[in-house]
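Sharing a chain and its predicted structure for anyone who wants a worked example. Both blocks are below, sequence first, tokens second.
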Amino acid sequence: MTTSEISAVRDVLQRSYTAWAAHDADAFAALYTEDATVVLRGMFHRGREALRAFMKDAFAGRLAGTRGVDDPQDIRIVGGDTAIVVSRAGVLMPGEETVPADRAVLATWVLARIDGNWLVTAYANTPA
């Protein structure tokens, strides 16, 4: 595990929250593999297009004006082309500076290095 690998993985997470802040569902979904899975409380999405459609609707509705935040607690590179990230995360509603405890989550990200680029291939979170 090299510093550059860790930086590259952190960059994917940062770009996901930059896309979130811009409410850009296309840029957000582009960080995921075609066959990615996303598990959220009560929801399961399979594939980049399903995630893009979900985020587009969410950004226009209940996530309008929000920002996602993420604080990686552990990053591991496994087998050279797989990264596992465990983080504390949440959604900041308009005007909030910290995530309220009842909306904080612990997230697990699985990223795969494909053609030299890290992409999210699985994501799940659970209440913290």
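Comments welcome. The chain has a mean pLDDT of 96.
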